[in-house]
Amino acid sequence: MMKTVWSFTELQCYKFFGFNQEDQKNWKNARKDCQKEEFGGNLVAILNKRVQAFLTFHLNKFQSDVWIGLNDINEDQMYLWTNGRGVSYTNWEKGFPLSYGPNSEDCIAMTSLPYKSAGLWRNSYCYYNKGYICQANVHPKYSFLPSTTPEQRFRYRNSSYFIIEAKMTWEDAKQSCERRDSSLASILDPFSLSYLWLKLKQKRIVWLGLNSNLTGGQYIWIDKFRMKYTKWAANEPKQKLGCVYMDLDGTWKTDSCNIKNFPLCKYPKVFPPTVPPQEPGNCPLAVEKSWVPFRGHCYHFEASSKMSWPKASLACLQLDASLVSVMDTAEANFLTEITENLESKSQAFWIGMFKNLNGDWLWIDNAVVNFVNWNTGEPSSQNDEDCVEMFASNGIWNNVYCNSYLGYICKKPKIVETVPTEKISENKESRKTDVIPSPTHNKAIIVVVLVILIVSGAALTGFYFYKKRNQHGSIEENFENSFYFTGGDAPTTSDGIDLVMNMEKNEQATN
């Protein structure tokens, strides 16, 4: 689908490619595709902030970086656009551009993930496959003219936005929006910011629903959404107690709540999902590993020590846990809230899903697969991509090779403390007390089982390869987890341990 945007001097047409991995190309092939006769353009040149905002808004559909036309292929650090234009505007990510001499990362991509950095530019090797954006002049037979009638309301996703055409204080602006069954707008990601800034057309300074007067100095959205994304101007926020407006350049600034700006309202009033209540029980004390409670389970997030899927599975087993299974949207959102803060250490995390010989996707803890959160086009049919990663920035899933090195998430039930009950016999001589096995006791059992399995690992590994070579042979279908076993019973925890040990032995054999 063609997208158009009004530039300062002319209309340009933009086309977006590579939403799915199989459609992505390296930089040179992407450029050739843009130059084909039916399009007659080139890789996009971003010459001003308005074009940048338009393109950033459309990055919300991508799960990978996208190629733009900027490069220094001919001379190191001499960046040019593929259409021959010089560089008058830049939007580099912190730490870029790079300078490594010849044969370095000479082509420039625009980030789509993590979403907090969406739209920023970074160097990349030109032979990597990525999405890409083509640009061409609009054909004279088409007449795309900007509307001279301003829109009263503009819609983005599930909300519509509008400006009240009267300047007022922040509190008056808040009440004016509420009288219209709306609220002062919250801006939760760079895509909605880009969209709103384009719609406002640099003509209004507007109040946002961000305030610290009501919360003891902490800036919080008045609709209670978590503040995951910010666009503060330089040296902001500079006031401990104040109200926030969006300036003409799209950045956020603080000022006295008594100055007057236009209200930017958001309709309808939307509030964040209710946090599920915690269930009874406790998580282990953070001695060596920290655990985060959610509903009836405890979660350990490991971002610093990256490892393969089988090694991550073993690491969780040694904690009397398993790689995480994800049961619903609430749990997926909980995991993402944690991982997005760990993204600088690991861009993706292992979860406990794997593919068995029948091609079924299963959880290693034998939980029922009744919820999935696959990326667009996933799971792919690529051979041997049998394990699943979760992107740190958005919680989306992707199947990858099991020997990739990633962070991982462990999950185990909370420890439920019960009050001992005493049964007194008629002669009051015998007493019985209910005892919950301690985590240390369970860990000892796991260690013993692991030792036994290490001894028998060679035989199990041989059986795994035999099954791999005979995938079309007869396989029992009367149990859930047929990854490595032919027995008729449903898999137990030890089946999961066997699975991990086999993959671990296989990995060691190939190293």
UniProtKB/TrEMBL annotation:
Its main location: secreted. It is found in: Secreted. GO terms for cellular component: extracellular region. It comes from the Eukaryota. Gene3D superfamilies: Mannose-Binding Protein A, subunit A. It holds the Pfam family Lectin_C. InterPro entries: C-type_lectin-like, C-type_lectin-like/link_sf, C-type_lectin/snaclec_domain, C-type_lectin_CS, CTDL_fold. The keyword tRNA-binding does not apply. Belongs to the true venom lectin family. This is Macrophage mannose receptor 1-like isoform X3.
